[in-house]
Design goal:
This protein is of the alpha+beta class. The chain has helices at 3-7, 11-24, 37-49, 54-65, 70-91, 94-135, 143-161, 177-182, 185-189, 193-216, 223-255, 270-284, 298-305, 307-324, 348-364, 395-414; strands at 288-295, 330-333, 338-343, 367-369, 372-374, 378-385. It is elongated, with a radius of gyration of 29 Å. The chain has three domains: 3-117, no CATH class; 137-251, Aspartate receptor, ligand-binding domain (Four Helix Bundle (Hemerythrin (Met), subunit A), Up-down Bundle); 257-414, Reverse transcriptase/Diguanylate cyclase domain (Alpha-Beta Plaits, 2-Layer Sandwich), CATH 3.30.70. It has a four-stranded antiparallel sheet with strand order 2-3-1-6, with helices on both faces. The chain binds guanosine-5'-triphosphate. Guanosine-5'-triphosphate is lined by residues 261, 294-299, 302, 307, 310-311, 314, 336-337, 413, 417. Guanosine-5'-triphosphate (GTP) binds next to strand 1, helix 13 and helix 14.
């Protein structure tokens, strides 16, 4: 498309007027901030060679490759447009004002199109990697629904890339496997009704985007809109994947092997579960926390009050901890009086806060045994895990994580116990 076609104006005249405006706002002098320089280059290339000009595309491709976000790019372009318009308005030339408006409209759309062109294969690649992580899970359980939505997204991207709205996949959220599951077994599994509604709304949002995408596909003047929709679709699909992974943890907590004394997950499934958490965290691009905790001076409890009191103390801690945790957090009895907690999609701050509340709960609720009150305390080591920092996910990574969490726990013990590190 040329400027002439786009505006129905003689291109040369449009260019002349526009160049005068650029001159007036100081594009060739010091007045223009350096950050606008490349955009001006882009505008000039476009004016000289039309919007299909290779050099114009090259400038935008450079910005995209440098990961200059589209919002920043748009903002810079809007600043430049504002400066150019102000000059044109001051000059009072209607034709110049129109020239500026027209040129910037075309430029913005064209550049947004280049961002879309760049983003489509990037997103397809990322989705492909996410699929590979889900595919690597030893137990997919409910994550088959995340997998299905990643495939669904691939179909959406193919339809957008091929400019073919007819190839868009299923729009109706109640017709997809996850939608059906959510309104049947899912409603029994997720106890919190508002959480259930939130997940259903997220799922409906993702499917709902297809209507808007269908309207944008094939309309060359809606690239900005298309780009925003694709970004939104990626974010929602990740959020949905995270929610599915959280619900999946409820399944793990209810169906995996249990420690008979405390009813918590037994150590036996720990390696498998942690490897799977790493793969999921990689696919959803979220960090998680591992909290290692150990009851303090537990030998003294056993020696003073007897082994049965010791057993009760372990059950007591397990109950207090479960009451503090979300349904989707995982808690294992890791050793004798040692516990390991996995907090999905949580930062270190959140992990520290939760551990501190569990520590305070235990201190505030001494164990009642045989008419006596037994004061208990525990120490906690909190580790934030960035799945992206491990090139491979294997049993060795799990050992590193456990070692690191353990060393934090021992720092807490060395600090005097009854604390969180
Ligand atoms: N009652 C009971 N005791 C257990 C169980 N498993 C391990 N223990 C006891 O837990 C105690 C752990 O003692 P230590 O490893 O010396 O640690 P601690 O006394 O808690 O001291 P710190 O961890 O350093 O604060 C041992 O006496 C074990 O016998 C269990 O299932 N029931």
């Amino acid at each position: 498309m040329t400027l002439e076609e786009a505006r129905g104006e003689p291109a040369a005249q449009l260019c002349d007027e526009f160049l005068q405006v650029l001159e007036a706002i100081g594009v060739h002098g010091e007045a223009l901030p350096a950050r606008h320089r490349r955009l001006v280059d882009c505008v000039e290339h476009m004016l000289a060679g039309g919007v299909e000009d290779g050099r114009c595309n090259a400038v935008v491709a450079e910005l995209v490759a440098e990961k200059v976000p589209f919002v920043l790019f748009s903002y810079e372009l809007a600043c430049l447009r504002g400066a150019a318009l102000k000059t044109a308005i001051d000059a009072g030339e209607v034709a110049t004002i129109r020239a500026v408006q027209g040129a910037f409209d075309i430029l913005e759309e064209r550049c947004a199109g280049l961002y879309v062109d760049h983003y489509l294969p990037v997103l397809a690649r990322r989705n492909h990697l996410r699929l590979a992580h889900i595919d690597g899970l030893s137990d997919k359980n409910l994550l088959v629904h995340f997998e299905a939505h990643l495939r669904w997204m691939q179909a959406v991207l193919a339809a957008v890339a091929g400019n073919n709205a007819a190839e868009l996949p299923e729009r109706d959220p109640t017709q997809c496997g996850f939608g059906r599951w959510l309104h049947s077994e899912g409603s029994l599994l997720i106890r919190d009704r508002s959480h259930r509604h939130e997940v259903a709304a997220l799922h409906a949002d993702l499917h709902g985007l297809l209507g808007e995408l269908a309207a944008s596909i094939g309309e060359r003047r809606r690239n900005r809109h298309l780009y925003a929709l694709l970004k939104r679709a990626e974010l929602i699909s990740l959020d949905l994947g995270n929610e599915i992974a959280l619900i999946n943890n409820i399944v793990i907590m209810s169906s995996y092997n249990k420690d008979p004394l405390t009813g918590l997950l037994s150590r036996r499934s720990l390696d498998k579960v942690l490897i799977n958490q790493l793969e999921i965290a990689r696919a959803t691009e979220l960090t998680f926390c591992v909290v290692m905790c150990d009851l303090d001076h537990f030998k003294v409890v056993n020696d003073t009050y007897g082994h049965l009191a010791g057993d009760e103390a372990l059950r007591h801690f397990a109950e207090l901890a479960r009451a503090r945790l979300r349904q989707s957090d995982l808690i294992f009895r890791h050793g004798g009086e040692e516990f390991l907690i996995v907090l999905p999609s949580s930062s270190r701050e959140q992990g520290l806060g939760l551990a501190e509340r569990m520590r305070a709960d235990l201190v505030a609720a001494p164990l009642r045994h045989d008419g006596q009150e037994i004061a208990l305390s525990a120490s906690f080591g909190v580790l934030e895990v960035h799945p992206g920092s491990y090139p491979f996910i294997d049993a060795e990574v799990v050992r590193d994580i456990l070692r690191e969490a353990d060393s934090r726990l021992y720092m807490a013990k060395n600090k005097g116990r009854n604390c969180v590190v």
